[in-house]
Amino acid sequence: MASKRKEISVDERNIIIKFWQEGKSNQEIGCLVGRSHCSIYTVIKNFKSTGIITSKARSGRPPKLTVRESRSILSAVKKNPRLTALSIAQDVQERFAKNISVVTARRILRWAGFHSRVA
């Protein structure tokens, strides 16, 4: 489940680092900025170790298909709504030389709002 907390903005991090360099405590900075002293500590710790204020890049597997390839799948489904996920996966194999599973094809369709419902 995704976190419900918001990431501290770069502007807010700059303010935190500025107060820290002026010699204010984590509790004082937390009161001034409206964040917990634990959040302030984390921002300062990351700044000390990396020297950078921005967030680190998120890890994760890159998407199998590009945005352009996904759009071409969706346009094909709009032209022919009776296409099966298997035929879409085979079409992607032929056109883009990429192996995608049937589940990936279904996921792209569901993400775009296409569901296998009969009117």
From TrEMBL:
Gene3D superfamilies: Winged helix-like DNA-binding domain superfamily/Winged helix DNA-binding domain
Subcellular localization(s) per the UniProt record: Nucleus
Protein name per Swiss-Prot or TrEMBL: (Mediterranean fruit fly) hypothetical protein
InterPro entries according to UniProt: Homeodomain-like_sf, WH-like_DNA-bd_sf
Cellular component per GO, a single term: nucleus
Originating species: Ceratitis capitata
Domain of life: Eukaryota
Major location category of this protein: nucleus
